[in-house]
Design brief:
By secondary structure, the protein is α+β, with helices and mostly antiparallel strands. It has two domains: about 70 residues, 2,3-Dihydroxybiphenyl 1,2-Dioxygenase, domain 1; about 90 residues, Roll (2,3-Dihydroxybiphenyl 1,2-Dioxygenase, domain 1), CATH 3.10.180. It has two helices and nine strands; from the N terminus they run E-H-E-E-E-E-H-E-E-E-E. The N and C termini lie far apart (about 35 Å). This is Catechol 2,3-dioxygenase-like lactoylglutathione lyase family enzyme. It comes from Parasphingopyxis lamellibrachiae. GO terms for molecular function: dioxygenase activity; lyase activity. Keywords: Dioxygenase, Lyase, Oxidoreductase.
């Protein structure tokens, strides 16, 4: 990962990302019991509004879930991708949360992939992201590979990723001009 630093604010990472689940019991079973994330805080919201639970994802960061008894149903393809990468449309709406990538050690990536499969989780094949026109290569040892990824859904269709940086990022990795909505043909 890059050694660039924020010169405006000394951010210490992500405190938590809060998502919404349909069934808190199934969410706890998935994140705590299958993925092994410790449940570190539980809250019953006032006036029967629901619940708010926090899981430790390492490095002092947390993943939180709200459960609201009257929340609208999920909208795949709008609020989240309708398919995993390599399996269909990975597009989601502006302002949506597309996916969460959990950082894993490169030397543990293959072991963790096998462990997900052994736990019965439907995962994509590993993707070895590189700078080629296709964005990936079948060879995980290619010197251009900068991150390895595997994608899967949680019980609510939230797209998750295990991602392992494979090399240090540097100035040469920032090479594209940002697009503007005005630059896209109507």
């Amino acid at each position: 990962m890059s050694k660039s630093q924020n010169k405006e604010f000394e951010l210490l990472g992500v405190n938590h990302l809060a998502l919404v689940c349909r069934d808190m019991k199934k969410t706890v079973e998935f994140y705590r019991d299958i993925l092994g994330m410790p449940l570190i805080k539980t809250i019953d919201l006032p006036r029967g509004m629901g619940q708010h639970f926090f899981f430790d994802v390492g490095n002092g960061d947390a993943l939180a879930f709200f459960w609201f008894p009257d929340a609208p149903e999920a909208q795949p393809g709008i609020a989240a991708p309708e398919a995993l990468p390599t399996r269909g449309s990975f597009v989601s709406a502006h302002g949506s949360m597309n996916h969460i990538a959990f950082n894993v050690a490169a030397d543990k990536f293959d072991e963790y992939y096998d462990r997900l499969v052994a736990k019965g989780i439907d995962v994509t094949p590993p993707l070895n992201h590189d700078n080629s026109p296709t964005g990936s290569t079948p060879d995980p040892n290619d010197e251009d590979v900068y991150v390895r990824s595997v994608y899967f859904f949680d019980p609510d269709g939230i797209c998750l990723e295990f991602a392992a940086w494979t090399r240090e990022l540097d100035e040469s990795d920032v090479r594209h001009e940002p697009k503007s909505v005005e630059s896209v043909p109507a």
